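Q: How would the structure tokens look for this protein?
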Amino acid sequence: MARYSNVPMSLADACLVRMSELYPECVLLTTDSDFTIYRRHGRKAIPTFTPPASS
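A: Here is the predicted structure in token form.
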């Protein structure tokens, strides 16, 4: 969490980052754009799926 001091990371976000490290084959379903910044294992992007905005 200290690594991302300029991007607010909640405990829930930190848990999801850790879970993505434990289960690397899974894709994170989120509407939180901060997950494009967060990295697992220090440098690997977290695979995410963001549903399209409804109109």
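The longest helix spans residues 11-22.

Strands lie at 28-29, 39-40, 44-45, 48-49.

Upvote if useful.
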